[in-house]
Amino acid sequence: MDIEPETKFDNPYFEPITNTWALIVLFLSGFIFLALASFCLSLIIVLLLENDYSIATYYFDSRLDYFIGTFPYYHLLIFFLLLIISSIFFKFFNVRKNIFFLFISLLVISLAFSLLIFQNNLAKNSEKYLENIYFYNFFIKNRTELWQKAEFGLLSGTVSIVKNNDSFTMIDYDSKVWIVYFNNTEIEKNLKIKNGEKIKIVGKLLDEKSFEAKKIKKYE
Q1: Helix (H) or strand (E) holding 172
Q2: What are phi and psi of 72, to 5 degrees?
Q3: What domains lie within the chain, and their CATH numbers?
Q4: Is residue 87 within 8 Å of 106, Cβ to Cβ?
Q5: Do 159 and 170 touch, CB atoms closer than 8 A?
Q6: 40, 85, 209, 217: which has the fewest Cβ within 10 Å?
Q7: Distance between CA 166 and CA 190 in Å, rounded?
Q8: What's the pLDDT score for residue 15?
Q9: d(Cα 216, Cα 81) in Å, to the nearest integer?
Q10: Beta bridge partners of 213
Q11: The pLDDT of residue 131
Q12: Cα 146 from chain centroid?
């Protein structure tokens, strides 16, 4: 009985790598970029779930338009770039794998990892830290900008001085000082207006330095 010879791998573009250390480096590099891609995807989930849809009509005609206008496109672009780089490393690690199948497999794995990261609040806590980094905000629109439109009835900042039961002084995220009046104002449950408290306000612009609050929420 004739025995067929083993099929040899013959690809002029991807030759199998046999060096053990090289394979370890390729695998670790692929895994690191996969982890970064998963983290980036978890940030997208956080931003979409905490996107302040209640203020959608202040900027757009519908929530769908608001969703499209505030979608974290840069995050998505970075996610796919990281995933592609990870796929390339794993392709060189195992050249016999189909690159398309490999990409889809890593996409599913990154989704699972991102959900795990999201459930442990790692992405949410990291996103708050990243908002303070200039490089991050240079490429990705800071969500505080959405609450810095006093002419639209939206304002946010830090309470500096509580004058009495119906007004306080607040410093917004552009370092401008405001006098905020809150008579008959709807205040979020468990929120206390005190010095150092970060808040978001829905209300009406009175003049260049005064604002009337209708709703006050904690800034998270």
Answers
A1: strand 167-172
A2: -75, 75
A3: 20-139 (no CATH), 143-218 (2.40.50.140)
A4: yes
A5: yes
A6: 209
A7: 18
A8: 65
A9: 40
A10: 203
A11: 63
A12: 15
Q: Looking at the chain, how many residues does it have?
A: 220
Amino acid identity of 168? F
Q: What is the torsion angle, in degrees rounded to the nearest 10, for the CA atoms of residue 104, residue 107, residue 111 and residue 114?
A: 160
Query: Residue 10 gets which letter from DSSP?
Result: -
Closest CA to 43 of 125, 105, 109: 125
Closest to 80 measured CA to CA, from 34, 140, 124: 34
Element (H, E) at 65: helix 63-70
**Residue 127 CB neighbour total at 10 angstroms:** 18
Query: pTM value?
Result: 0.67
Alpha helix positions (H), 94-203: 99-119, 122-130, 134-139
Tens digits of residue pLDDT in 56-89: 777 777 788 878 877 888 889 999 999 999 999 9
Chain centroid, CA 54 distance in Å: 18
DSSP state of 211: E
